[in-house]
Amino acid sequence: MTEGAAVRPVLIVEDDGATAELERRALSRAGFTPQIAASVAEARNRLVGGRYAAVLLDYNLPDGDAWNLVGLARGRRPPIPVILVTAMGSEAVAADAVLHGVSEYIRKSDGFFERLGGAVERAARVAAADEEMRRNDSLFRTIADNAHDAIVLLDGSGTILFASSAAETMLGDTPAALIGQRLADFIRREDRADWQHDGMVPPLHSAARQIYRFELRGGQTGSVEPAFATIGEGDAARTLGVLRDVTERVRLEERVRHQQRMEAIGRLTGGLAHDFNNLLGVVIGNLDLLRDQPQAGTLVRELAQDALDAALLGADLTRGMLAFARRQDLRPTHSDVNASVRSITRLLARVLGEDISVELRLAEDVWPVLVDRVQLETALTNLAANARDAMPRGGPVVIATRNAHLDAEAVTTHAAHAEALPGDYASIEVSDTGAGIPPDVLNRVFEPFYTTKEPGRGTGLGLAMVFGFVRQSGGYISVDSKIGCGTTFRLHFPRAAPPEVAHAPTPQTPSAAPLGDGRTILVVEDNAKLRQLTVRRLRAAGYRVLDAADAAAAMPLINGEATIDLLFSDIVMQGGVNGHDLARLATARRSALRVLLTSGFADLHGDGEVLPGPSHRLLHKPYRSDDLLRAIRLALD
User: Fold this and answer.
1) CATH number, residue 45
2) pTM of the entire structure?
């Protein structure tokens, strides 16, 4: 053996000394380091304490059974290969050798010693390869069973040959039970279109990572993102698949997309409502003037009133759109949730009809909230009416209240609380036992003008108004529904701080529209027709009126010498300076100037206040002539 060569010991078990010596020499020439044991007992002692590349075992030993030594060698870790040699071999001995796991069987015949080194070399190499494979298999199973992702091995037909522990959590069956099943059978049929061979084998070379919907965890549907790789070629080819459960990620992405869609619809709806309110303002104002003309006949007044009634219904629609867009005017007060629910119950009994009963399940000591009570009662009425429509044969509408605390984990892990902030909430639940809402409809129930009711039975704004009101109140809304079991809407409002005692007197609103007294009003409105109508109204009431289309045209008048008692300005205007900004600039120039702002929606300013100063008031569009004159007088006084 050359210096530095690896020592590869081989145990020779042979009771004939001459034969053992010849075997030793043959193996030494082949590069092994032979050791000789003359008996079964000696061989057993050497096997227990030594490490050998192979065992060369004589079949006929006088003091023991050769098969016991074979079992002992094969039971070592790593197993030691055994080459059985015999002078009188037979088919029966050869068969026993195979059954006992002997690596090779050699007869002591001509050329035996020349063939001995090659036989031991082959047995040692095979054993080393088997051990390497065993270690790799053990390493693979350890990695697979400790991986968060599920790992599967498939044959050419897509049948599972191996499944990791994570596959049980994902696919709802034990790894042993998964073997023999097709992976494609767990995929929803409509998602199998791009699988090769009718869903038998997954696409292995797709440029984009595909997400499939699997039947997860014993029947629940989840989303899985698989990655596949081919191992081997031809009939021996296998497919290694790594399946990542992305159910929560997909749900989060869907929630984000839904929120973005709702925000986009809200912005669009709010903008449309604002523009429509300007148009309605012109229509309502001119109809008011037409109806009140002294020379107008009875027919003209009736026609004007009919048109005015229709325009006011249009104004109600815009209020619903503004509610969804969270741009309605709210008057929040410190409210007792249980008291609000009890007060609306009497009304609901008349609205819902005799077939519908109202059951209250009110928790004690429900936290107070800061909400607009009128809007809250309107929201509950709307939800109760929807519950009634879901139960055409009648049934109970259950209204329940409770306190709820949301921590950061609840907000991030539960889909129902995805739009909430951590904190304390008072919750109101409205439940029915009706038909339930299908999943594809459930995702759209809060969208404006989306309705499944028959034409003429709804505008599609009811739930949109509830959604906008709750969100504008700082809360969030969630809904659960199951086909055939009913639906539950939950309104969650933030817990309110203790109320402050207010000492300021409440201004009294005049009962009749007052006339002007010659004071000067600056009207700033970018809608030309509405501006002209407003100027006409105010001048007819006895005011002096200056007008401007935007802030750029108004500032020279404000900076001029003319007396101005009141600034009446729209909030949303073109030119980059809105009504809030104009009011600040104007009052900085004229400290005694009174301000009345108007808008199609309650346009929250950057600091969170509706109005920029305590002396500033707000008049909502569209407004009637009497509303305008009262608001002007209140602002001046």
Assistant:
1) 3.40.50.2300
2) 0.42
